Amino acid sequence: MKENIYHNIPPLSPEAMASRRRKSAKNVVLLVVKYAVMLALALFLLFPYVFMVSKSLMNLVDANSLKPMLFPKNGLHFSNYEIFLDYWPYFRNSLIVVVINGIFIPFTGFMAAYPFARRDFKGKKIMFAVMMSTVMLPSAVVMVPTYVMFNALGLVDKLASQWVTAFFGGGAMNIFLMIQFMRAIPKDFDNAALIDGANMVQIFFKIMFPMCFNVMLFIAVSTIIGRWSDFQGPLIYLRTLSKMTIAVAFYKQFSSTGSASMLSNIKMAMAVCMTVLPMVLFLVFQKQMIGGVKIGGLKG
Q1: How far apart are the C-alpha atoms of 300 and 290, rounded to whole Å?
Q2: Which of 1, 120, 137, 161 shows its CA 20 to 30 Å from the CA of 228?
Q3: CA 60/CA 292 separation, integer angstroms
């Protein structure tokens, strides 16, 4: 018969048992307080969005009432969202811009980052320093020269002005993020592939590309969300209303003056429509985005 290993353990004294109960109760209280604070913070942060959705379902009387209300008094009016159909051409323009930028900025950035991270060549350090020095340039400094260049190329008042830069890496910070991510990958993968007879193109597409998918996905989603809500770029380069993206067209239609400024319920319905794409992208790719950035931060 096996000896009971707990046979010689003395029972807890009343004082020890009381101390353990107090500690357990303290942990429960701390946990309740923690979740209460988190819940209050979540409600505080979500309140503006809930208010926006609620107001988008109100009729014009409730929406323009002098007394603010959280819930509609005269029923839900989903007909306010018919504005999406009227503004579909502008949504389509924005979708064209974000799709091209979301595909080609990560890919061309990956192409630019690969030689810096995995190959050795003359002038590498100088080229890297020049590239990173562009981060210190304020956007206001390059705004006028960029406009002059785009005007000389005939890109002003054309939708191409919003996606042509996607073929040049998407900026030094995106390239730098990919460089740091690729530097964390052991070069043994490259050497093993070379021994097996793979060339540089095969290493690029079949080894490095799948390994960098998470960081490329993060850059793609961040780019799409940023370009979807971009206001300054389309406002500067696009003049014809039919070529404008949804952010600028929304502003042009619902400016602070005119009769349209009173349609606050329609404004809120349009604002809700504009939040759908960024929200869906974040919810769908949240795990991959956080995982990709976390791996790059730990190993880089």
Answers
A1: 15
A2: 137
A3: 46
* Other Cβ atoms within 10 Å of 24 Cβ, number: 10
Q: Convert the pLDDT of each residue in 276-288 to its tens digit.
A: 998 898 888 887 6
Rounded Cα–Cα distance for residues 166 and 162 (Å): 9
| Rounded Cα distance, 264 and 198, in Å | 61
Q: Which of 216, 234, 99 is nearest to 169 (CA)?
A: 216
List the alpha helices (DSSP H) in the chain. 14-56, 60-63, 83-86, 88-118, 124-133, 139-152, 172-183, 188-195, 200-203, 209-211, 213-228, 232-237, 246-253, 264-299
Nearest to 222 by CA among 166, 292, 288, 289: 289
As given in the structure block, the two tokens for residue 107 are: 């890919």
- Give the number of other CB atoms < 10 A from CB of residue 240: 9
Give the chain's end-to-end CA distance (angstroms, integer). Answer: 56
**How far does CA 49 lie from the centroid of its chain?**
18
Global confidence as pTM: 0.80
Mean pLDDT for all residues in the chain: 84
- pLDDT given for residue 9 in this prediction: 59
**Structure tokens given for 284:** 């769908």
Cβ proximity of 26 and 227 under 8 Å:
no
Residue 20 above 80 pLDDT?
no
* 282 token code pair: 């974040």
Three-state DSSP class for residue 75: coil
CA atoms within 13 A on the CB side of 228: 20
